[in-house]
Amino acid sequence: MDKTDVRILHALSKDSRASVEAVAETVNLSPTPVRRRIKRLEDDGVIQNYSVAVDMKRCGYNLHLFILIKLKSRDSNTIADFERRIMNQPQITTCQLVTGPYDYILQVFLPNMEGYNDFLRSVLSELPGVFGLETSVVISPVKETPALPIPVDF
Beta partners for 106? Predict the structure, then answer.
């Protein structure tokens, strides 16, 4: 990956719907080599997908939560069973295995506190191997960006 590839990635991270022509103009190349570079970045797995940023509140999800999960045991069966069950929960938008006093961080979107109560009772309390959990409610997002932390002058 060279500086031009990084500039292409920056342009697409700001607007994944940008045309090849618009990206080419941004990186000061003609469309044909930009199209080839994008295709190579996709084939190499650098670009994994294209997505849309959604305003969750406008979709009825007014409660944004981060839930820290601690497992009773870290054996392979407990981990596999927990992770398999997490995959079937659409309210959980991300699940990260982490270091520290907790084992996982979940990002969850729900309509309201009543929805959280239901989610706590019917989903979280039923997850296998859970020893403890701690929930933090997002009051206000400060920074949310798909932009790459790679400097453009890489």
Answer: 67, 95
